[in-house]
Amino acid sequence: MSTFDFFLRTKLQPPRATAQLVRRPRLTERLRANIDSPVTLVAADAGWGKTTLISDLLSDIARPRVWYQLDHTDADPIVFLNYLARGLAGVEPKFGNRLTACRIGRGDISIPRTRRRSFRK
């Protein structure tokens, strides 16, 4: 099985809210204030409720969105691009047709190797 054939649907689904959800209205309002920004970054240490905060906000907003839960496997650019294309296809059905139709070694998409650079003196 190739990297392309394996797909976890749960990586593209936000978690479900539970009855014990602690709402954070101040933070939710700050996110709502930036809702028209193309990208919003929420950063905090593990366990501080980032996922819960964003999924709570998204459950109250009726607009197109893509949820993509990243993990170590997404360091591979092919895996990342395929998941991203699948997620975006949920909002725009034709998005990524060429990407998902072409496979490395079987299509016309090539990803150049990046050179590592050291910034140490």
Topology readout:
Blueprint: H1 25-33, H2 50-59, H3 77-89, H4 97-101
Distance between the termini: 43 Å
Q: From the alpha carbons, calculate the radius of gyration and give it in angstroms.
A: 18 Å
Low-confidence segments: 104-108
Give the helices and strands as they follow along the chain.
Answer: HHHH
Largest sheet: none
Please state roughly what percent of the residues sit in beta strands, choosing from under 5%, 5-15%, 15-25%, 25-35%, 35-45% or over 45%. Answer: under 5%
Strands, count:
0
Mass-distribution shape: globular
Structural class computed from helices and strand pairing: mainly alpha
What is the average per-residue confidence, as pLDDT, rounded to a whole number?
78
Number of helices: 4
Measured as a percent range, the helix fraction is 25-40%
